[in-house]
Amino acid sequence: MTTFVYDVTMTCSGCSGAVTRVLTKLQGVDKFDVSLETQKVTVESATLSQDEILAVIQKTGKAAKVAA
Q1: CA distance 20 to 16
Q2: pLDDT digits (tens, 9 = 90+) for 28-61
Q3: Is the four-CA dihedral 50, 34, 38, 62 of positive or negative sign?
Q4: What residue ranges do the domains of the chain occupy?
Q5: GO molecular-function annotation terms (predicted)?
Q6: Sheet of 64-66, strand order
Q7: How many angstroms separate the CA atoms of 4 and 13, rounded?
Q8: Whether the predicted model's global pTM rises above the 0.90 cut
């Protein structure tokens, strides 16, 4: 299992909710945490790549990048 961390610009609970919804539906995500306070999304997956998960998060319209 691999853990990926992303910086995602989220300004309200609606923003974090949108990210939560797409990750809930994404097959291959084992566990995730969306933090509105820290603007971080942590995803654990054994089958998905970092770029595949990033693309799904970006489809919500939020500015997202791999955390440094």
Answers
A1: 6
A2: 999 999 999 999 999 999 999 999 999 999 999 9
A3: positive
A4: 2-66
A5: copper chaperone activity; metal ion binding
A6: 29-35, 40-45, 2-8, 64-66
A7: 22
A8: yes
